[in-house]
Amino acid sequence: MSSLTVQPAYKRNKTYTWLFYLLPSIAIMLVFFIYPILLTFFYSFTNLALTGEAARELKFVGFDNYTRMFEDSTVTVSIWNTLVFLIGSAVIGQQVLGFLIALLMKHKRRFFRRVIGTVVLAGWVTPEIVCALCLYSFFSDSGTLNSIIGAFGISPIAWLFTVPMLTIILANIWHGTAFSMLVFQAALDDVPSDIEEAAVVDGASRWQILIRITLPYIKQTITTNMMLVTLQTLGVFGLIYAMTGGGPGTKTTTLPIFMYNQAFINYQLGYGTAISLLLLLMGIVLSLFYIRSMRD
């Protein structure tokens, strides 16, 4: 009987020890993640503001902020701009370009890989605001790009006004491609070389090896990298704000830019938090989609 009573007590102590070691992580999650989300969710149902009568008295306004949000045509424009920026700079730009660079560097000499890797990494290690200023100088009316095309007799183009979305997409590609390149480099190095050599012996072309061996083998890495790059790109703010400020007009106004303008320019914090939850919802939906893709 004594042995039967000691074993459950030991198991309980083991469970308590396990929970004790997790307490710091749980506390950090509650303070810096769960609590801010709950607070944001609460403020989205209030008239919280920095100025005016609403700043003196906090009131619960129900779904007024959400009703206003879906009646605001700028929200629709912001969602569309966010999706265009996301697909152009993350899904197509960073993902495809990062994979191509990693693929071209595979089996190359170490010196070549170091030189190319350093050049690509330069954009990634550069702070976002510095990157924005560099690309702003490159695309400005008297910038580097117009100087280059001017040498061929082409008239200067106001890139930041004629194709503003393209400029911020290219800027974000330059800034973030290195991450995808590093991820794919590690994945491609893990592809068994004996399988590729056997395919070559069987007469497979490089294209067939890529489609039928390489891509299926690193499918999980592709999906994981896509999810990480997508979530990072959804929150891009400083790069766009420094280059275009969301303009001209609303041509580059993404959800983070629109949220900032409403919360800190128009001082409507309640409305701004409602927009932030819309951005959070987009991230959750896309994450669930990628997780489902990995499971399939």
TrEMBL record:
Compartmental location: Cell membrane
Transmembrane region(s): 20-43, 79-103, 115-139, 145-171, 222-244, 264-291
Keyword terms, alphabetized: Cell membrane, Membrane, Transmembrane, Transmembrane helix, Transport
Source organism superkingdom: Bacteria
Pfam families given in the database record: BPD_transp_1
InterPro entries the record matches: MalF_N, MetI-like, MetI-like_sf
Record's bilayer topology term: Multi-pass membrane protein
Record-level GO BP terms: transmembrane transport
SUPFAM superfamilies found in the cross-reference section: MalF N-terminal region-like, MetI-like
Domain ABC transmembrane type-1: 80-290
CDD domains per the UniProt record, alphabetical: TM_PBP2
Family: Belongs to the binding-protein-dependent transport system permease family.
Name of this chain's protein: Sugar ABC transporter permease
UniProt organism field: Cohnella lubricantis
Source organism phylogeny: Bacteria, Bacillati, Bacillota, Bacilli, Bacillales
